[in-house]
Amino acid sequence: KQAEKAVHQKKEQSKTKCRKARRRHINLVAEFNHRQRKNIWLETHIWHAKRFHMVKKWGYCLGNSPTEKSYRACYRAMTKHCLLQDLSYYCCLELKGKENELLKQLARICSIDTGLTFQEAGCLSGRFEGSLNLYRADRYPEDMLGPVTFIWKPRDESENRQLWIWVHPALKQDILKELKAIFQCSEPEEICITESVTTSIQEEEQVEVVISLGNKRKKEDKEGEKAVPVKKIIGDGTRDPFQSYSWIARTTGIAISDRSMEILRYRLIGPLSHSVLTDTLKAASVQTV
Q1: Is the pLDDT score of 254 beyond 80?
Q2: Which residue range is the domain that position 117 belongs to?
Q3: What is the pLDDT, as a whole number, of residue 275?
Q4: Is 126 in the same domain as 255?
Q5: How far apart are the C-alpha atoms of 230 and 33, rounded to whole Å?
Q6: Residues 248, 138: one domain?
Q7: What biological processes does GO assign it (predicted)?
Q8: Same domain, 52 and 165
C-alpha cells in the first residue's frame, strides 16, 4: 500500500517550456494569436504591457496608467518635445461612392448649427481633418449619436470619393447602423471573412500538436515543411470575426466598409511633432511610365 501510494503521489512531468523555448519567435507569435482571442491587442501592446497597468475595455486590452512615476516626463514631452499616443482602438468606417450622393445623405445626420459639416470646403478637399457631432437621421437636435472625426481622400480624376470616419468603439455599432440605414446598404453576396479565421484555427491546431509532442521543436504543415505562423488580428474588439465587414447599396453604389484595426492611428503632441514626422517619413520616388 505504501508503494502504491508513493506512485500516485509522484508529480507529473511539467509541460512548461523553458524560457529559451518560450522566447523563440515562432512560439511568441503563436502565443500572441492565442492570447488575443477575447480581447484584441494593439500593435504596441507588448511595449505598453511592460510599462502600464492594462485594462480590458470595449473589446481591447489598453494601457490605463503607468507603473512608474512618468507624469512629469509625459508633460515635459508634450511641452518641449514630442509625445506619441496609440489610438488604433478607434474604429474607422470607410465610405465610397459619388460625392453628391454621399453629401446628400450625410447632411441628414449632422447640422450646420453645431459648426462644421461634411461639406466644409477645407475638409472636402482633403487638406484638413474635421470633427462634428452626429445625430439620427432628420432628428436634430434630438437623438445625438456622438462625436466623430473625418477626413476625405483628395480628389482625383474620378467622380467617386472616399471618406474615412473615425468613431469611438462604444459608439461604433449605433453609428454604423445609422449609416447603413440612410444609404440603404445591404450585405454583399460574397464576403471574404473565412480565410483569416480558418488560418487562425489551423495555427491553433498546429500549436496543440507541438504541445502534445513535447520534445518536437519545429512545427510542420500538411506538406511536411516548416510552418511559420503569422501574427494575425482577427476581427476587432467591436466585431465578431464571422460577421460581415462590408456593405453596398444596390441602387446608388455607395459602399460602407469597416476598417477597424486595418488602419492604425497615432497622435503626436508637442512642438517637435512635425520634425519627428519629417525625419521618420521619407517621400517615395514615383516613376511614371
Answers
A1: yes
A2: 91-188+244-260
A3: 93
A4: yes
A5: 9
A6: yes
A7: tRNA 5'-leader removal
A8: no
In a domain, 284, yes or no: no
Q: What is the pLDDT of residues 92-122, one digit of tens each?
A: 999 998 888 899 889 989 888 888 888 888 8
Q: What is the CATH number of the domain that holds 95?
A: 3.30.70
130 and 62 assigned to the same domain: no
Query: Cβ contacts of residue 198 below 8 Å, gap of 6+?
Result: none
Asked, for residue 160, whether it belongs to a domain, the answer is yes
Q: Is residue 31 part of a domain?
A: yes
| pLDDT at residue number 276 | 92
Claim to verify: residue 178 and residue 106 sit in the same structural domain? yes
Task: Give the pLDDT band (50/70/90) at residue 246.
Answer: confident
Structural domain contains residue 231: no
Average pLDDT value for the chain? 78
Higher pLDDT, 61 or 7: 61
In this predicted model, what pLDDT tens digit does every residue of 41-89 receive, in sequence order? Answer: 888 888 888 888 888 888 888 888 888 877 888 889 999 999 998 998 9
Residue 33 exposed, middle or buried by CB count within 10 Å (0-12, 13-18, 19+): buried
Res. 211 pLDDT band, cuts 50 70 90: very low
Residue with cell 454583399: 188
Smallest CA-to-CA distance from 82 within 215, 278, 216 is with: 278
130: amino acid identity, one letter: G
Counting the structural domains of the chain, the total is 2
- Do 44 and 97 belong to one domain? no
Q: What type of residue sits at position 100?
A: N
- pTM here is 0.71
Q: Same domain, yes or no, for 160 and 41?
A: no
